[in-house]
Fold:
Amino acid sequence: MKFVGSVAVVTGAAGGIGSALGERFHDAGATVVLSDRPGTNVSALAAKLNARRSGSAFAVEADVSREEENARLVSEARRLAGRIDLFFANAGVAMGSDLSASEAEWNTSFDVNVHAHRWAAKYLMPDWLASGKGYFAVTASAAGVLAQIGSAPYSVTKHAAVAFAEWLSITYGSRGISVSCLCPQGVNTAMLRTGDRPDAPPNETNVVRAVGAVLEPSQVADFTHDALVEERFFILPHPEVAEYMKVKAAEHARWMGGMRKLQRRVLGV
Structure:
């Protein structure tokens, strides 16, 4: 895709990967609509970007865990910016652990990590199909193509996010709709740092740091920008993820055994 003169919507844009994506797309020449939950300071990023280029950034508070809020976000973005060329469903949550995870944790994980993607697509697709063009991208995780040691809700919902993105591409790819799926491993965000307090037990944060580099959000945003320009489906900022995917597909039993070994080494179980 071409970013100059385009309109890009990014959810989960108040910090982390979402903030970096919004800023990178803006630097590439896009008008951006930045969204996050009510109470976050997403408007600060919009103000920062507007100081660079007046009228080029908008902030819309929306709770994407609800269908009606996704519909409102799409409608409001079109009203503010005139259209939507790229919708980047980046908002995500990481919560819960093993089978003891609460029903609320499972429900919230599905609502934000999966249902928000399909709700946004539901309200975007009619106009995109009518015009014969549109770009839908999602932030999933390496956990979505491999597996997550620790959190069952996170691993399962990120797998579902990848599956939904694949389905969208298969279903609409020949009708002018491009789809990409960002699957990073460790990124230096608040989500990763939740397990860093001194009294925290061993957790999936330790696993992420044990298997590869922790990238900065700006590095992920740069990589993602280039992948979107090339319209690649899988966006893998950590190159080792592609290698792990090959091993998982070709030698699944070996890969499963390696994951169990990693769990014992890092989590002690």
